Amino acid sequence: MKKLMLLAVSLMVFTLSGAGKSRALVLYYSWSDGGNTRQVASMIAGKIGGSCEMIVPVKSYSRKYAEVLKRGRMELKQKESCPIKPLKNDLKKYGVIFVGTPIWFGTYAPPVRTFLQKNEFKGKKVYFFCTHGKGGPGTFFTDAAKLVPGAVVGKGFNCYGIHVKKIAPQVEAWLKKDVK
Question: What are the pLDDT digits (tens) for 122-134?
Fold first, then answer.
């Protein structure tokens, strides 16, 4: 059974890394340097052999949580754009894009919304993933899918933030079962 699972993951890496149909890119936003979303993004990239890059806001969020809440709430409520820095990776070179975010106020963090609004995903496969607290993923998956018209949106992945260090088997199972 282990050999069969290893073969399936190896085949998926072959396909997603560019040796098969499409190259894969894992993009994410994470508020803290060792953040949960960053850890999940690294796991995904490691399992599929894809590139991994952080979505970086032009103006960093404060390290003070109360200030982050205030700014994030304002940006989401007013649908303000949170300017982001250009990516190092060229999206045109990738057929499969993974996009990850922490859940803020029941949906994506503002830098992820800006990224999705400002880029073209037509003809690409997009997989969303998120980390969250007790409130769950909220409306993130639905909200994000609306911002990528023309993309093929696959089944997403979410996890409760405090369980990040133990979720490698669930990430692997999601990639094996739901990422095609």
Answer: 999 999 999 999 9
